[in-house]
Design goal:
heterodimer; A: alpha/beta; TIM Barrel; five-stranded parallel beta sheet; 10 strands; 36% helix; 16% strand; B: 67 residues; Ubiquitin-like (UB roll); 7 strands; 10% helix
Chain lengths: 258, 67
């Protein structure tokens, strides 16, 4: 099993391996409480047009921006050009050069376009961005993005918001084995056990939004994810015994009564 | 009739307004908004200098929750 190392992304150290998305919470207050309960130090946000005919939007009003690193995303981008445009807007709006790069032309599964993602990453890296790309669990693409200079790779567990867990487990294992940048498993983690499994496998962090935000009790679910991830970290530090094909008796095999 | 496009919607446009006046005329506060004029980001301290003109494509953007 991969040794648990400090989580450092582009020189910034994180004590929590849980990053949380800010979408879809039932209220700004619940969102703020849930993020607090998650122990997360980095939250993702998005950029959208103001609805000029209905301008009230207090989604993020309860969030204390000084407590969290903001990771704006390029959600909504369907190609590299749109992603670069969104990234520039995000940099100006959020006052950060960190960007979660996502290019998702397919509206049904929101699967990322690897070709456009690599193209956008190269442009953004040239512009001085810290790029954290959301990708399908493709080890070759992950390598290409790492070589281009991305700060992490963020392979998906299953489609965004699907809560189906680690459907891409074997591919993610290869990414973890080969990656020299932190691997953040993003999208599709539906239960704390999924997040724990990702960390136990050797992932450096996970990003969760939907599973927390649309739970009946988002604050409790955020804490559940936090605890699961801490348990997985502890397990990695405990030097796991590993699996075998045959049984290994737990009780002594000598000194029977007969 | 001259028009201006704001967040994808074409509107009739007459006269001259600064970008800040334009935003205020839409009953929006300029805080926490980002303005893009003809695909160029407008720094917040230039909203009083930059003029909105007929034919402009204006985007008014804010940070929202997202994953």
């Amino acid at each position: 099993m991969k040794k648990l190392e400090k989580l450092i992304i582009a020189g910034a150290e994180f004590h929590s391996r849980l990053f949380v998305g800010t979408g879809k919470f039932p209220s700004p207050q619940v969102m703020a409480e849930a993020i607090e309960a998650s122990g997360s130090e980095m939250v993702t946000v998005a950029l959208r047009r103001v609805d000029v005919n209905n301008p009230e939007d207090s989604t993020l009003s309860a969030l204390d921006f000084s407590k969290y690193r903001l990771l704006p995303n390029t959600s909504g981008a369907r190609n590299a050009d749109e992603a670069v445009r969104l990234a520039k807007l995000s940099r100006a709006a959020c006052n950060t050069n960190w960007i979660k790069l996502e290019v998702t032309p397919d509206p049904n599964y929101l699967l990322p376009d690897g070709v456009e993602t690599l193209k956008a990453a190269e442009t953004l890296l040239g512009l001085g961005f810290i790029v954290l790309p959301y990708i399908n669990a493709d080890p070759i693409l992950a390598k290409r993005l790492e070589e281009a200079g991305c700060a992490t790779v963020m392979p998906l567990a299953s489609p965004i918001g699907s809560n189906r867990g680690l459907m891409t487990r074997d591919q993610i294992a290869i990414i973890i084995e080969q990656s020299r940048v932190p691997v953040v498993v993003d999208a599709g983690l539906g239960m704390p056990s999924h997040a724990a499994e990702a960390i136990e496998m050797g992932a450096d962090a996970v990003l969760v939004n939907t599973a927390i935000a649309i739970a009946g009790n988002p604050v409790a679910m955020a804490e559940a994810f936090k605890l699961a991830i801490e348990a997985a970290e502890k397990a990695r530090l405990a030097d796991p015994a590993g699996a075998t094909v045959f049984a290994r008796p737990s009780s002594p095999l000598t000194g029977f009564l007969r | 009739m001259a028009t201006i496009t704001i967040n994808g919607e074409r509107r009739n446009w007459e006269g001259e307004k600064t970008l800040r006046e334009l935003i205020q005329s839409l009953n929006l506060k300029t805080e926490n908004l980002l303005i893009e004029q003809n695909f160029e980001i407008v720094p917040a301290n230039q909203l009083d200098e930059r003029m909105a003109r007929a034919g402009d494509v204006i985007e008014i953007i804010r940070i929202v929750g997202g994953g």
